[in-house]
Amino acid sequence: MDASMWIAKTGLDAQQKRMSVISNNLANVSTNGFKRDRALFEDLLYHNVRQAGGQTSANEQAPTGMMLGTGTRVVGTEKLYAQGNLISTQNALDLAVSGEGFFQVLQPDGTIAYTRDGSFKVSATGQIVTVNGALLQPALVLPPNAESLTIGADGTVSVALFGGGQQALGNIQLARFLNPAGLQPLGGNLAKPTVASGPPQVVQPGLNGAGKLVQGALEASNVNVVEEMVNMIETQRAYEVNSKAISAADGMLRFLNNNL
Question: Which residue of 106, 128, 168, 193 has the fewest CB atoms within a 10 Å radius of its CB?
Fold first, then answer.
């Protein structure tokens, strides 16, 4: 019975971690390009009381064994990179990726981070940057006499100039990963590659499995509020059941102490 209390404790710890994951999903329901997380569970080691197939007599074997589990734990969290809804903003600097791929932005330490948030701005020097001022890569600079900006589905960037004429500025490229779930979130809608994600594959939008760009739109969070609420209720009930298991084990121990 003492073991049952510790087993139930592992259930409480695991459900509490799952509730933290759900809370973070709900908190980011309005975050551009946010991808929901899912907690991954695994059972703990088993205490082998009797081995399945063991000899019960000279000519007989046990068809089943006795394996007593020791609980559960959250072994990790996984980002689910399902496509979020595309919301029209009519802002020329807002970009959404319809399909796979990440925008590349330059970090202050010189490394490249990756994001699905395409709400870009123009700096005082004409450079296209994120809302936090990080430079989009490859770098694009708008000329002072630019009148309007056009970004094609394939990433080609051009501007119309005051007084007439067009000027090509370059191309926006996307990065793909063999295992995007292995990316490490950094906060600020950014992520960095890890050994698990594999190295980035920089490609032109619309080619080699990369999604196309949609100008004047943003990708919303892929969090489904109703689904998360159901998961929250399920987690709460599981937490309550594990709490009751501890109370039941405590009651059984109290009965033994009072009656033996």
Answer: 168
Q: How many domains does the chain have?
A: 2
Number of Cβ within a 10 Å radius of residue 150 = 13
Instruction: Check whether residue 163 and residue 240 sit in a common domain.
Output: no
| Same-domain pairing of 119 and 168 | yes
Has residue 119 got a pLDDT over 70?
Answer: yes
Is the bond into 144 cis (omega within 30 degrees of 0)?
A: no
Closest to 194 in 3D by CA, of 111, 91, 83, 99:
111
* Domain membership of residue 17 as a residue range: 2-81+223-259
- Considering the entire predicted model, what is its pTM? 0.88
Distances from the Cα of 230 to the Cαs of 80, 152, 161, 235, 237, in angstroms? 17, 40, 53, 9, 11
Give the SS3 label for residue 21. helix
Same-domain pairing of 68 and 139 = no
d(Cα 204, Cα 155) in Å, to the nearest integer? Answer: 7
The residue-averaged pLDDT of 115-131 equals: 94
Q: Sheet containing 166-171: give its strands across.
A: 146-151, 156-161, 166-171
Same domain assignment for residues 190 and 94: yes
